[in-house]
Amino acid sequence: AAGRDRTSGRRLWTAVAILGAAIGPALGGALTELFDWRAIFLAQVPVVAAAALICRRTASGWAPRPERTTKGKPLSLSARAISLVLLSAALTGVLFLFVLLLVSGWALSPLEAAAVVSILPLAAFLGTRVPGDPGTRATVGSTLVGAGVLSLAFLPLDAVTMTIAPQLVAGVGMGMALPAIAGGLLPERSPTDAALLLSVRHLGVTLALAMLAPVAAAQLDGAAERVREGGTALILDARLPPADKLELAGVATADLDAIAPRAALRESLAHGRQTIDPADRDEYERIEGRADETLVVAINDAFAPAFLISGALALLAAGALVTSTRVKLAPAAVAACLIAAAVVPTQAAIAALAEPEPVAIADPCDDRRLPATGGLDGLLQDGALALLDKAACHLGSSREQLALALVDEHEADRYEDEHGVDPRSASDLLSTILERQSPPLGRLLDELLDP
Fold first, then answer.
1. Which of 338, 311, 339, 337 is nearest to 138 (CA)?
2. What is the pLDDT of residues 200-222, one digit of tens each?
3. What is the DSSP secondary structure assignment for residue 113, as one 8-state letter?
């Protein structure tokens, strides 16, 4: 009876730990939205105090079992510990990066993000109720986590509905695998065992953050640059008067930092809307929609490598478990793994169909259709864009890169580093273009300008 009580207690402890980890992001988001970010830390005080009181009341009636040395298969135990590290690292993708995508990338409010991720703890609770031996549950659960997290790499725009299946699959897998490994395949008979398992799990989370955070940050920086270039293309190609396009220079050069890029773009677009003539609002709204969806696609693409890495770590955990436990999966378990695996290509196919047409960055050396807005202003605008194309063609850059360099100092410095010409200097531009077109003329101009 005592053994059964202890087994039941371990299962309860593991289930509560899983639900606590899964519900944390949702609860934190709700507190931030309803009160303030400081509420996250204030709310922990009474929770911890209540936990301490409960522990004090129950500890007097609990006597730890004497520790026993583990005999038999140290290599198997090491492989299982590695699988727990890998699985914990993989879960960082859905517990941390996914929330970051919702709040920072898609600009959802903390309460909205909390509602979206509430699917995860519910699915994790269901996962803890799945029967089976520890080896089977751990292997199948790790496979489900891998499939769910991999599916998050294929999200079309900001479609919240497309996150439901990945969360369900990953959540059920989380509820199946963690209690099966911690306390099932790995011993948790004493406080020392429990401390070691907790340390192993935290090691996985720490390694994942150290590995995935730089990847996501670097990808976001690259996404911001692509969106600036795409936004510039939208503005230059739009059927808007030249004066309006000059007023929209701030939109093209908006500081789309990695913390809240979509919020920054929306703020910049809202500011630009104030300067647009009412007659041109329809065209501007088209630019707004295309710029926003271009940014969201770029953000999703930026997070995709981190989700792919996280999913691969979970599948590696499943492989380590198969090796260490030599589990023989029943037909139902194999079917569950195959269904989970099918979620990934299905999600990828739907995302490919729903993804909008990318903003094309045309070759400036090729002919292109000009805005042709009519009137003298339209004629001058078409001529200026044609000259911009010719200059970019001779300098070896895109028209959009050159246009950004002409209106933004930071972009100008970067352009000079990359192409060897200062776009802010008319003489430097002219001499470089002439030199590349006709080296003797370029050298002659240089001598005339700098005798």
1. 337
2. 888 888 888 888 878 877 777 77
3. H
